[in-house]
Every structure is written in C-alpha cells, then in structure tokens.
Amino acid sequence: MTRLTVGDPAPPLALPDTDGVVVRLDPAAHAASVVVFTANGCPYARAWHDRIQAVARDWADRDVAVVQVVSNDETDHPEDSVDGMRARVAAGEVAGPFLRDAEQSAARAWGATATPEVFVVDRDGVLRYSGAPDGDHDDPAQDAAWLRAALADVLAGREVARPVTSPAGCSVKWRVELLWWAGCPTHGQAADLLRRVLDDLGRGEVHVAEREVRSREEAARLGFPGSPTFQVGRRDLFPVDAPPALTCRVYARADGRSSPLPDADDLAARLREALTRPWELPGWVDFRRQTASPS
C-alpha cells in the first residue's frame, strides 16, 4: 500500500455527500484542510467523533475546512452505507461534508489504514500532518490535541512540531473481489486459493465477493483483463498492461513458468500489503503505552 509522507502533495479528492452532491477538496481555497477517514460503527471512530466535530466547528471561522470520508465496504458493515451516513447527518451528528468513498479510491490514494485517520493539508496542497486526532481515544479531555496543534502550526506558518503520529483505530474494511469469466475453468480453483491464502494470513474474517463478468462492457467498467482477477478496493493485485477482455488470464510464477493462477506466496504478499492494518505499519507506536510494535 502506498502511504503518503508529510511533504507530499495531497491527492485529488472528489466524492459525493449523502445527497449525491460531489464535494471537491480545494486546498487553495482555505488556510488549511482536514481530511478524516472515519466509520460509523468503529468504536474508536465513535469515541473520537465528537472531538473531530468540535475541531470542525471551532476552526471554521479560521478558514479551516474539515471533510469526513467513509470508505468501508458496506457488505459486512451496512452502517457505513449511504443510508447509515444519512441517518447521522439527519441526527445532526456531523459537522461539515460527510462523503462516501464507495469505490475506495480515496482511501487507496491517501493510503488510509485506520478509522479514524487524520490528514492536514496546507493552502499549497501539501500534506503537513497525518495520524491520530490525539493520544487516547478513551480520554475526551485530550480534545484532539495533536490535530489542533498541527492546525495552529500550519496557520501560523510554522513547521508542524509533531507532523506524524501512528494512526490508531479500526482497520479500513477493504472490498476483496474475485472477478471471473465463465469461459475459463479456473474460477473454483481461484476461489479456493484466495480463501486459503486469507486463512493462512490470519485474515479469515475478510469477506470475499465473487463476481462473474458477463460482457465486454462490464469488463471495461471493472478494469477486467481476464479471468481470474483478484482485486482489493477495486485495484488489481496483479496489474498488467492489457486491455479489458473476456479471456483467460496467465500469471508468471516464481519458477518462470506460466500458470492460470498466481503463486500462493505471491498472492499472500500482495494481499498482506493491500490489507495492511494500522498496527502492522512499520514503526507503529501505541501512544497509550509508548511502545513500538515489533518490526
């Protein structure tokens, strides 16, 4: 997974709100912008929720824009559907734009791994802070102190004193899909391989959606270069420079041979990276314990 680094340009962000109106991040229009990847059911996101809304309200008159993005796959998390989001908006629980990343493209582009995960962008569109709102979701008195301090530094034209903290919370719930075409005989083997590899990775809880691709138009829409195709967050785990097609796919194996299926070890490595959880990031620190995770 590609992770943004402080100093990187912020990726474009244009997503629909709960009314279907597309909201675009425009850093140049504000003194600072905050992008928060969040979720409706995650206990960490719920614990930090009011603190983040307070930041949105407290800093609005200082020209700070806060947008909140829900990227989780709704298959096993219906509370993160547009309907679930609308309910929170209707209840007055959300300050500012509340955006649905149904294709998970924004979470991929920003390298989000946690809910919540906070990014602060300056007027030049440069990432200045990433991480958690503060050091303890269980302590409301912390009041999103890390986020507030980062905003104060950005608005004052200073370097952010603490530009990176370890994201803490629930993992982003990625959509894992197996795309297949009936003209190839490997669908069942591919499904078994994918399930076995996820189990071996200790990720048996991950939902796998199996989708038959029936037309060239559908193949083009899904970016389907052949059967079987393994995707996470609508991104091909084995990207190839090939046009969408209803055809059988060929994978290069470690021993140099070609195969209708990838090596299990290769698939495992790509899944491990694509499904990275926050506490699996290199150098991740639990700030409540002040201990680094194993490398």
UniProtKB/TrEMBL annotation:
Residues 4-156 form the Thioredoxin domain. SUPFAM superfamilies: Thioredoxin-like (SSF52833). GO terms for molecular function: oxidoreductase activity. InterPro entries: PRX-like1 (IPR047262), Redoxin (IPR013740), Thioredoxin-like_sf (IPR036249), Thioredoxin_domain (IPR013766). Pfam families: Redoxin. This is Peroxiredoxin. The lineage of its organism: Bacteria, Bacillati, Actinomycetota, Actinomycetes, Geodermatophilales.
